[in-house]
Design goal:
alpha+beta, 4-stranded antiparallel sheet, 3-stranded antiparallel sheet, 42% strand, globular
């Protein structure tokens, strides 16, 4: 998962993966594999403040040299030299929309952390899954947000 703690007053939290379990109503910091590693489960009721800090989204255009070569060959076969140029120009480009958001959490014990979600392409299946998880987190903690007025 792309949820990661990027800032905290507890240095052992920084860089750890973080997940939200809506059924258990917990936030889990860290992971374990076959009993190795360390994780901390925090009841959501321990969160006293929550805030969406910032959000960035931008389109990134990726160019594939293989796609460009294929477009040039097809364009060249169909219409000649000019078609090869046009075929190379219009093929092999893929636009991705990345997404980044920071969420701030303050706990009853005065600990705090900033959870960052960084998605490479919010339109693919994984990006949609992460966005759905983000919506659940925001919905769960909306009552703990400070009013903007």
């Amino acid at each position: 998962m792309s949820f990661k703690i990027t800032q905290s007053n507890k240095k052992e939290y920084i860089g750890k993966e973080c997940s939200f379990d809506g059924i258990e109503d917990t936030i889990t910091i860290g992971t374990t594999w076959f009993g190795l590693g360390k994780k901390l489960e925090i009841p959501c009721d321990d969160v006293i403040e929550f805030k969406v800090l910032d959000e960035e989204s931008k389109a990134i255009q990726e160019t594939s040299s293989l796609g460009k070569a294929g477009g040039a060959v097809v364009g060249g076969l169909l219409t000649g030299g000019a078609g090869a140029i046009v075929g190379a120009m219009i093929s092999g480009n893929e636009t991705k929309k990345d997404f980044k958001i920071n969420l701030g959490f303050k706990l009853e014990n005065k600990d705090w952390f900033i959870l960052t979600l960084d998605i490479d392409d919010k339109e693919d299946w994984y990006g949609k899954f992460c966005k759905a998880m983000l919506e659940e987190i925001i919905k769960r903690f909306a009552t703990k947000s400070e009013a903007p007025f």
